[in-house]
Amino acid sequence: MLSQAGGTPQASTRVLVVDDEPQIVRALVINLKARGYEVDTAHDGATALRLASACHPDVVVLDLGLPDLDGVEVIKGLRGWTRAPILVLSARHSSDEKVEALDAGADDYVTKPFGMDELLARLRAAVRRAEPAAGEDEMLVETHEFTVDLVAKKVNRAGKDVRLTPTEWHLLEVLVRNTGRLVSQKQLLQEVWGPSYGTETNYLRVYMAQLRRKLEADPSHPRHFHTEPGMGYRFER
Questions:
Q1: Lower CB count within 10 Å: N or C terminus of the chain?
Q2: How many H-runs (helices) and E-runs (strands) does the chain carry?
Q3: 208: helix, coil or strand?
Q4: Order of strands, edge to edge, in the sheet holding 140-142?
C-alpha cells in the first residue's frame, strides 16, 4: 500500500496525522520523522480536534473514515479557527465526496491506497502554498545588494535611492512578493501589463535586463533575479 520515498527534512514543520488504521499511522510517522517533521497522531476525530487546538500543527493529514466523527465534520471544526493546510486521505473514490471535503476546507485529496512519495510531495506543496509571501507580513525586503521598501515603494542600493520606472517597480514588486517562488511569464505579463497580455515575453526580457542592470552586482551573472527558461522568473534574496 505504501512506498518509500526520499525528501528534504522539514525540521520546523509539525504534522498532525489523523487515521484509525494503525499500519498507516505507523508508516506515516516513520516516514515523516525520518525527514525531520514533528508528528502528533490521533485515531479519532474528537482527539484530533483536541490535539490540533493544543499543538497548533502546520499541516493536518486526515482520514475521512473515522470511528466517531465524519472527516468532513473534523475539517469544518478545524476551519473554525485555523488555516493550516489539510491533506485528506480516504478510501472513498466518488467525486462528490472529494468535492464535499474540498468545499469544507480541505486543501488536497489523496485516495487510498497511496504511494508515500506522492503523499509527501503533496504535503510539501500544501505547506509551501500556506507560507506567506514576502510582503504579506514583511514590508522591508533586504538583500546583500539592495533593500526594497514595499510600503514606500522605494529601492535603496549602497545608501542611495534607485530610480525605477513604474513598470520596473511593478515587475519588481510582483517578484519580491513571491520571493523564492517561480512566477510564470503569463502571470507576470498579466499583472504588470494587464489581462490582455500573456504572450509578449520580449517585454519581460527587456525589463528584467533593466532591473538586473540597476540592482544586480553582476547583471550577467544575476544573484537575485533568476530566469527559468520557457517558464518564468524567480526572485531570491
A1: N
A2: 8, 12
A3: helix
A4: 140-142, 146-149, 154-157, 160-161
Q: Which residue has the cell 473514490?
A: 93
Alpha-carbon distance of 236 to 226, in angstroms, equals 8
pLDDT in tens, 27-37: 999 999 999 99
CA-to-CA distance for 164 and 154, rounded, in angstroms?
Answer: 9
Per-residue pLDDT tens digits for 29-86: 999 999 999 999 999 999 999 999 888 899 999 999 999 999 999 999 998 788 889 9
Assess contact for 52 and 73: CB atoms under 8 A.
no
Q: Rounded to 10 degrees, what is the CA torsion of 31, 10, 226, 192?
A: 100
pTM: 0.55
With beta carbons less than 8 A apart as the criterion, state whether 150 and 140 touch.
Answer: yes
In sequence order, which residues have a C-beta less than 8 Å from that of residue 159 and are 6 or more positions away?
A: none
Domains of the chain in start order, with CATH, are 14-130 (3.40.50.2300), 140-235 (1.10.10.10)
Q: Smallest Cα–Cα separation from 219: which of 229, 230, 208?
A: 208
Q: How many residues does the chain have?
A: 237
